[in-house]
Amino acid sequence: MKVFVVAIAFAFVAAAVAQDGLSLSEEQIQKVHALAGECIKETGTNEAAVRKLRAGDFSEVDENVKCFAKCFQERLGYVKNGSVDEAAVNKSLGPLAGEEKVKAVQAKCNGATGSNDCDAALERYKCYYGENVKNLS
């Protein structure tokens, strides 16, 4: 479960940065777990679909999963009023993953759009995920 919590905590940005060496405190892990749980309940998403999303399997993406991505990004403080708060992302993830790496991924992915805010959140996630795959290959 701990691996799932850490991975989902960084589903938005850290999916695009090397996750090796990221270490979260127990308090951070608990906070992220609580936020993910809130968004799962709020959106009616099932946990299995969220796990697949985290793994890059988009086969179970529906509107609930898209809105989970939006909810989670907002609860982390990374998205406000439909726009990425780059300063908040850098403050949170820069020390963990490297500020330059985070900024580079943001430059490629923050402009992703969709037909609504939930769709845009998923498109950002896909971009971040794709950047992570490229960086690890």
UniProtKB/TrEMBL annotation:
<dbReference type="InterPro" id="IPR036728">
    <property type="entry name" value="PBP_GOBP_sf"/>
</dbReference>
<protein>
    <submittedName>
        <fullName>Odorant binding protein 56d</fullName>
    </submittedName>
</protein>
<feature type="signal peptide">
    <location>
        <begin position="1"/>
        <end position="18"/>
    </location>
</feature>
<comment type="similarity">
    <text>Belongs to the PBP/GOBP family.</text>
</comment>
<dbReference type="Pfam" id="PF01395">
    <property type="entry name" value="PBP_GOBP"/>
</dbReference>
<dbReference type="InterPro" id="IPR006170">
    <property type="entry name" value="PBP/GOBP"/>
</dbReference>
<dbReference type="GO" id="GO:0007608">
    <property type="term" value="P:sensory perception of smell"/>
</dbReference>
<dbReference type="GO" id="GO:0005549">
    <property type="term" value="F:odorant binding"/>
</dbReference>
<dbReference type="GO" id="GO:0005615">
    <property type="term" value="C:extracellular space"/>
</dbReference>
<keyword id="KW-0732">Signal</keyword>
<keyword id="KW-0964">Secreted</keyword>
